[in-house]
Amino acid sequence: MNQRLIFVTNDDSYQSKGFQAAIEVARQFGKVIAVAPDTVQSGKSQAITICDTLRLKTISISDDIEIYSLNGTPVDCVKFAFDYFLKGRKVDMTISGINHGTNSAANLLYSGTMGAAIESAFYGVPSVGLSNVDHSDDADFEACIEYGIRIAKSVIDSDIRPLCLNVNVPILPANQIKGVKVCRQTKGFWVDEVLERTDPYGKSYYWFTGGFQNAEPEAVDTDEWALKSGYVSVVPVQVDLTSYKQMKAVADILE
Questions:
Q1: pTM of the model
Q2: What pLDDT was estimated at residue 56?
């Protein structure tokens, strides 16, 4: 039987601890080929490089794991791999992550990790975006690895296509996590604040900051609720952004 091929990428760069954890998940299912950004690309969503050249660098190669870096976005990594580097080869699953920080709720829309997972699903490859709610560089990924393997096994063994999952793991030891909840994305938005500061030359520079505002804090079927209640949240993701509920109303005013 041919060995399965698992593709890995992320948005925190190939040097991140979460990336190594993603490879640990992926290697349970077959040969791993990883192409990840050479620098941190958080918040890149579906961004692609169109005004610059791309360069591939070999990081390490062994019998079962090949790791490369690309000077582009997470979606660049997927496109480069599927349209060129791995063209003609069957990819059985994509693992994107493991992200340092949550991609629940509206974070999914900004996330480079989920951007790569969604892009992979465009190619018909079942994809799992894995995220650790702990944003720190030295976060503990043991629970993420354990649940990542469990979820990835169910995905690769299923016949659901296309399939893209947004998986977030709470900051808890694996033995304290209550299980997995398949749920919906929380409705909410970021309340942004712009901080102005002055550099040593007297020129202004700015930082975006702020926090997420949960628009439905009482809901008990969302990813935010699942994480706060001690569950791993799993949200099946689709890309159709059509507001079907508004189609008739908009047709009425425009037609």
A1: 0.95
A2: 98
Residue 1 confidence (pLDDT): 47
Q: Is residue 193 part of a domain?
A: no
Q: Domain count for the chain, please give it.
A: 1
The total of other beta-carbon atoms located within 10 Å of residue 40's CB is 15
Range of the domain at 230: 5-186+217-254
In a domain, 174, yes or no: yes
CB 111 within 8 A of CB 11: yes
Contact 93, 48 (CB under 8 A): no
Residue 246 in tokens = 């508004």
Which residues face 144 on adjacent strands? none
Q: Which amino acid is at 161?
A: R
On whether residue 212 sits in a domain, the answer given is: no
**CATH number of the domain encompassing residue 172:** 3.40.1210.10
pLDDT digits (tens, 9 = 90+) for 104-136: 999 999 999 999 999 999 999 999 999 999 999
**In whole angstroms, what is the distance from residue 104 CA to residue 222 CA?**
9
Give residue-wise pLDDT tens across range 57-73.
999 999 999 999 999 99
Q: CA-CA distances (angstroms) from residue 42 to 133, 210, 227, 233?
A: 14, 16, 21, 21
DSSP 3-state of 153? helix
Has residue 196 been placed in a domain? no
